[in-house]
Design a protein that fits this description.
The protein has 304 residues and is α/β, with parallel strands linked by helices. It has helices at 13-24, 36-49, 65-82, 108-130, 162-183, 216-219, 222-232, 237-249, 277-290, 295-300; strands at residues 3-8, 27-33, 56-59, 88-91, 102-103, 106-107, 134-139, 189-194, 259-261, 267-268. The chain is 45% helix and 14% strand. Strands 3-2-1-4-7-8-9-10 form an eight-stranded mixed sheet, sandwiched between helices. β2, α2 and β3 form a beta-alpha-beta unit.
Length: 304
């Protein structure tokens, strides 16, 4: 039976390189993105890599939770109709906004980097379980180390600093990833995080040279911080995709779950904050409140 994979934000950068790696490993890959032209070019490259299992593009704005719900419904219905398992879901989507963005009344970094992949994963769990053994790979970031660790609300109090808010959303998603791995023990669904380690991508180009993205304390040593950012984003997208490809395909990881695959494509120790029960519980509450799994819940719950 054909192995299938879905890669979000898969039309360029790390996501496309991940899709190409999965195609090379024999997967029929669906890439998700907003732009049809980029999607067509991505599919052309995927098909050149593995013509035996043609790739395809599905359009969805992953910043819209309504579109995430619609996407999940489409994928679940397709797999139910075809009988093909959903073997791998790679939640590669990510965004860092230099200026604060609102998305449906919520802080944008938290929506794109956590609520969106959380919701897509939860809605596809029945499909992933039916197709087990299967894997969920959530792309994390070294930025979790500088994250604000207050999760009483979607957005912490104080000024907006893009890099720290991005790291906070990635920390929320990592805490969710490790918690989900525990929830799904024994189901045949493995849940892993992959840290790309940084690369020059559409997200990092230009953004990482702006001192406004860090807190005032770090701006005092901006030349040092900027050099660190330059080094951290010097890898190619192909190199940065290796951890995701490994997490999705490595036979040595079969049956293993709750791991973080580091930038060297080997397991690493997760951030202690991501396993803190207080943070895990707070992230679970925020996720369930602001990304409810049914539209009925969505119509009755409002951002606080």
């Amino acid at each position: 039976m054909t192995k299938t994979a879905v890669v979000t934000a898969g039309t360029g950068g790390i996501g496309l390189e991940t899709a190409l790696g999965l195609a090379a490993a024999g997967f029929a890959v669906t890439v998700i993105g907003r732009d049809a032209d980029r999607g067509a070019r991505a599919v052309e490259r995927i098909n050149a890599e593995n013509p035996a299992h043609p790739g395809r593009f599905l359009a969805a704005d992953l910043a819209s939770l309504d579109q995430v719900r619609a996407l999940a419904g489409t994928l679940a219905a397709e797999h139910a109709a075809s009988g093909e398992p959903l073997t791998v879901l790679v939640n590669n989507v990510g965004a860092m906004f230099t200026k604060r963005q609102d998305i449906d009344g919520l802080e944008g970094s938290f929506v794109v980097n956590h609520l969106s992949p959380y919701l897509l994963t939860e809605l596809l769990l029945p499909t992933l379980t039916a197709g087990a053994p299967s894997r969920v790979v959530n792309v994390t970031s070294v930025s979790v180390a500088v994250a604000r660790r207050v999760f009483d609300e979607v957005e912490p109090p104080g000024g907006y600093y893009a890099f720290h808010w991005y790291g906070r959303a990635k920390l929320a998603n990592l805490a969710y990833t490790l918690d989900l791995a525990k929830r799904l023990q024994g189901t045949g669904v493995s849940v892993l995080a992959a840290d790309p380690g940084g690369a020059a991508t559409d997200m990092t180009n230009g953004t990482m040279t702006n001192p406004d993205i860090v807190s005032p304390a770090l701006r005092l040593v901006w030349p040092l911080v900027r050099r660190m950012f330059v080094r951290a984003t010097s890898a190619t997208a192909a190199t940065a995709a290796r951890p995701s490809i490994t997490a999705a395909t490595d036979p040595a990881l079969a049956g293993r779950t709750g791991l973080v695959i580091g930038s060297s494509a080997t397991p690493v120790t997760p951030s202690r904050a991501a396993t803190n029960p207080r943070i895990v519980d707070a992230v679970r509450r925020l996720s369930q409140t602001h990304a409810p799994l049914t539209t009925t819940q969505a119509n009755t719950q409002h951002p606080g």
